[in-house]
Amino acid sequence: MRESRIRRRAGLRAVLAGGAVLLVGAGLSLALTATANAATTLGASAAATGRYFGTAVNSGKLNDSTYSTILAREFNMVTPENEMKWDATEPSRGTFTFGNADAIVSRATSIGARMRGHTLVWHSQLPSWVSSVSSASDLTTVMHNHINGVMSHYKGKIYAWDVVNEAFADGSSGLRSSIWTQRLGNNTGWIEDAFRTARAADPAAKLCYNDYNTDNWTDAKTQGVYNMVRDFKARGVPIDCVGFQSHFNSASPVPASYQTTLSNFAALGVDVQITELDIEGSGTTQANNYRTVVNACMAVARCAGITVWGIRDPDSWRASGTPLLFDGSGNKKPAYDAVLTALNNGTPPPTTNPPTTTRPSTAPPTTSPPTTAPPTSAPPTGQPGTCAATYRLVNSWPGGFQAEVTVQNNGATTINGWTVPLGLPAGVSIVNMWNAVGSGTSGSINATNANYNGTIAGNGSTTFGFVANGSSTPAPTVGCHTP
Ligand code: GLA
C-alpha cells in the first residue's frame, strides 16, 4: 500500500556544496591512518564512526538473489517497508500476524544487521476496524494492546521503534486530523501515552518520533515537532530519537538548513536518525544531494545512522524518480560512490572537547586543618599527579562497538601528559581512535594523550574514544599513569 501525497516545496533550493565539509579540524585528531577508515561497503563504513547504514526491506523480495546479495553486503540496519505496520500486524482486533515481519527479522539476524521497527501508531495503513472505534477509552485500550502485542513479540530484537509516525500536519496547523486526534484529543497527550506504553513494553528499544517535511529548520511543522520533543524531554516522557524521513525531490529539495535541523534536535538530548532517505534524480546532481545529506549526519555527533528507503531504483515507492543508490540491475550509481566517500570521510561521533566546566567539588572538610608543621623535605618529583581511567560502552552492534574512556586527574596538581594502558580482549581490534594516540590496534596497547589534551587541571578530566571490531564483552580494561 503506498501513499501518493505531495511533498510541499520546501523554500529555498539547497545550497549544494560541491566539496565535502572538512570535519577534521583543530580539537579532533584521528589517531590511526585514514586508510584504516576506508571501508568498502556502506554498513562497514558507517560502523567505523559508530553509525549504521540501513535500508527498507520488502519481504516479497527476500528470494531475489540480486536484492539479497546487496542487502547482505551493504547494510547493517533493516526497516520493514510495510510488514510491521498496523494493517499487517493486527488486521483484525486482537489477532496478530507476524509472518512476513518475522521473515525480515530472521534475515536481518542472519546477515548481522539490526532492526528498526516501523511503525506502531500512524493514521495510514490502518485497518478499518481501528478507524471505526468510537470511544476515547476504547481507542486507548486498542492503542495500548497494539503497542504491547507488537513490541512484546519483538522484545529485545529491535534497536529503535518508530512509536508514532507522521502525527503532525504539513504547514502550521499543528497535529494532523486523524482518528487519533478525533477520538483522543487535538493535543500530544495520546502521543505521550504511546511513548510511555512503548517504554514499558520493551525498555531496551530506543523510542523514536518519525515524520517527513521536518527537514527545514524554520518550517512551522519542524518547529511543532521540535516543541513537542522539547516538552517531552523536559517532563521526562520517554523519547530517545527523532526520525527524519527525508524523501527529497525537486519539489522538496534538501534544505540548506538540514544539518542545523539535525543538530538542533540532537541538542535536546535525543538521537537523530535519517529514516527513509530517497532523493529523486540521477548522475552528479543526485550524487551531490546524497553527499550533502550524509555529510550533515556525519557532522552531528548524535546522528546515529541513515536508512535509505529501498535498495534498487525499481524497489522504490517512487521508482520513476530513480531515487536510490543502485540501478535496476543492482549496479552502484554515482550516488552510491558519493555516499560511501562521505561516510569514509566522516567524523567519529563523540567530538568531545575537554569539558569547560569544572567538576563538582567535594564538600569542604568540616574538620579544622591539621596544625602540624608543613614537611620541610621537597615534594616528591616525577609524580605530578595521579590519574584514573573509566571505561564506558557507548554503542554496540553485531561485530563492533564504540567506547569512551574518561581520564580523570585525581590530584589537585595539573598533570602534563597521560597514558592509558588499554587491554583489548582477544578478537577486538580498534579501527578508529580520537582524542588519543594508540600504540597499536589489538592486545595490550597504550593510548596516549593527543598533543592538545595532555594537560588536565587538578581534579579535571578529559575523554577519548574509539570504535572497534569484535565483541563489546568482556569489556576492555583500562589503567592510567602520568605522564
Ligand atoms: C511514509 C511511511 C513509510 C512508507 C512511505 C511510502 O514515509 O513512513 O512507511 O509508507 O511513506 O512508502
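^ alpha-D-galactopyranose complex. The first strand starts at residue 52 and ends at 57. The pocket of alpha-D-galactopyranose is lined by residues 2-3, 118, 165, 212, 245, 276, 317 (CB under 6 Å).
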